[in-house]
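Note to self: keep these together.
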Amino acid sequence: MGAELFARVFLTITVDNGSEFTDYEGIERSALGEGKRTTVYFCHPYSSYERGSNENQNKMVRRHYPKGYDFTSVTPADIRRLEKWINNYPRGIFDFYSSADLYEACINSLFAA
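Structure:
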């Protein structure tokens, strides 16, 4: 995607309080030099309603891989298939467009600007 396009697409990122986000400043920092490329916001602990779309994504993953599933047998190809299915799933919140449709439209509008 490149650093410049990343900064135009991901204006903010909302995360939970997991240890994978302890370097939030590194996530925000621009790879091109001084300044920030995005702003990271943290949800309140035990407030999954603050990241409803993320929770819905988790439910979609759980359709294929129930909680407690042993992922050692899951191949990169399996993950790519699931990713493609999730990204192309039409959603009511998007007027039944998929997230892939909207992402493509967003990227196209950035290049047209």
